């Protein structure tokens, strides 16, 4: 899988710092450019395919949104993430931010997430939050649970805000799940957590879900390795045989 697609994304946003597209970050351009250049060097040397799954350093993230369809106007309202370093979840090394939203929230989203309009109206802009998130993630792969939701919103937001494709290949927990539990028909995060003995705490909160997903990733990674998949290359080869 590798990081070349994300390198392309980073290079794409590099030129944007000179065009004031980020708004509010103009005084920090030099700092951001130094960060981008350093991240480029690190990403170009990154190779996640051969690293043992339990030694693979990743950023596990989750987003809360106003709906399911970014192309129809639904938006990200919070992003949460936690790092896994050498197989250990770093609870102290987390990222969480609300995202500015100045419209009425759908009632079902307010009930589901516990968020209110008052919490979001003065939150940072999505552009600022995404830059901060990329600074947090640096050169590490991203992981999400059933990642199509995250992928679609990140792609849409990057194009809308920066006119740059988001080409990072997000690792999906379902890849490990299909290898580790090929005979189980569980799909929801809470179902998989309960099955694997993980207490379900903080559900439908971006950081809470990121931490649950991180625990699940570790548990499934251990099971995948016990089944004979030492690294992501082995996982993808096994999946190809299952399809």
TrEMBL record:
One of its GO terms (molecular function) is DNA-directed DNA polymerase activity. GO terms for biological process: DNA replication. Keywords: Exonuclease, Hydrolase, Nuclease. Residues 57-226 form the Exonuclease domain. InterPro entries: DnaQ (IPR006054), Ribonucl_H (IPR013520), RNaseH-like_sf (IPR012337), RNaseH_sf (IPR036397). Pfam families: RNase_T (PF00929). Coiled coil: none annotated. One of its GO terms (cellular component) is cytosol. SUPFAM superfamilies: Ribonuclease H-like (SSF53098). SMART domains: EXOIII. PANTHER family: DNA POLYMERASE III SUBUNIT EPSILON (PTHR30231), PROTEIN NEN2 (PTHR30231:SF4). NCBIfam families: dnaq (TIGR00573), PRK07740.1 (NF005836). This is DNA polymerase-3 subunit epsilon.
